[in-house]
Amino acid sequence: MISLKGEKETVDFGEKISSLLKDGVTLALVGDLGSGKTTLSKAIIHSLTGIEDIPSPTFNIVNEYNANAKTIYHFDFYRLEEESELYGIGFDDYLSNKKAIIIIEWADKFESSLPKNYLKFKFTKYDDARDVEIISVGKKYMSIADEIENLLK
Ligand SMILES: Nc1ncnc2c1ncn2[C@@H]1O[C@H](COP(=O)(O)OP(=O)(O)O)[C@@H](O)[C@H]1O
Ligand SMILES: [Mg+2]
Asked: Which of 2, 35, 82, 90 has its CA 20 to 30 A from that of 109?
């Protein structure tokens, strides 16, 4: 478990872990509204692509970034009501790009549609801090989960 005290520590954390994120990995960001999912997403996307303007995907469900030889799909499932809506947005097509890094806020809404292997970031919100637990679902990214946990020790 990682404890982040203040927004800057969330941003620094995102920058630090970005180099560990292999092409093709999916990050499932889970936690209450305002727990830091978008803050962490932006830090990772900015660090990997150099892009500055990174809006929350809450309204358009998915934003795509191509820069610095990286492709990142940034999803937010918050406004989706039915799992079947994932077909409408072509979620499977995004997943089939095995080189893309996929970041999904509120991923736990449709857990059965997620790939077999992914990294889950579970946020807990406190007044002035956030805890983040990193869980490898499936075996493929277990070593990255360990590396991330060890990074801040
Ligand atoms: N480690 C932290 N400690 C305290 N506040 C934080 C921390 N990380 C982010 N925040 C703040 O919490 C809010 C998180 O918002 P956001 O990232 O949009 O959350 P979410 O996408 O989970 O709804 C922002 O106001 C941000 O400044
Ligand atoms: Mg958000």
From this structure: 2
Cα atoms in the Cβ-side hemisphere of radius 13 Å centred on 40: 26
Domains of the chain from N-terminus onward: 2-141 (3.40.50.300)
Within a 10 A sphere around the Cβ of 149, how many other Cβ atoms?
14
**Ligand 1, CB cutoff 6 Å, lining residues:** 4-7, 9-10, 31, 33-39, 105, 128-130
Q: Torsion-angle region of residue 120: left (phi > 0), alpha (psi -120 to 50) or beta?
A: beta
Atom of ligand 1 nearest to the CA of 123: 22
The CA distance from 66 to 17, in Å, is: 19
Position 77, amino acid: F
At 109-132, the pLDDT tens digits run 999 999 999 999 999 999 999 999
- Ligand 1 atom 2: the closest Cα is on which residue? 6
